[in-house]
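[Meeting: bench + compute handoff]

Bench side (C.D.) handed over the final construct sequence. Compute side (W.E.) agreed to return the predicted structure before the next meeting so the bench team could plan truncations. Sequence as handed over:
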Amino acid sequence: MTVALSGKEIAPKLEKQFPGSVIESSEDSLLIKPESLLDLASFLKTTAEFNFNYLTTITAVDYRDYFEVVYILTSLEHNHSLKLKARCHDRKNPSLPSVFSLWRAADLQEREIFDLFGIKFDGHPNLKRIVLWEGFPGHPLRKDWQGGD
């Protein structure tokens, strides 16, 4: 089992490298600015101290006022993990940068989130529905989805 790193311990190191990028840190996660996601993720992957070479999971949550996308990163070398979060406040056109260029595992996971929540991942090479068919009306994991009868 991996050891979960504290967001509070990592936040100062990230703030030093990317000032203003961390919105909030807690014992179990880091909330970062969406525009900093790709730079921070790249830093966490390529810096020897962290070496988060494995993207375990990407998922999303609809909190009605915003969407939160959660990334769980793992270092196989150091046997530690980190939960990274970014929020989308624009419900009409939510988007985040794709991390596909860093971790190929993001391919299907970003597509699934796009399909079920409607969150776009800028820079994804093949962002199309993966669970539902093209033309399906809406995104069924959104809390405001009305569904078709």
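W.E. noted at the follow-up: The mean pLDDT is 96. C.D. will use this when planning the next construct.
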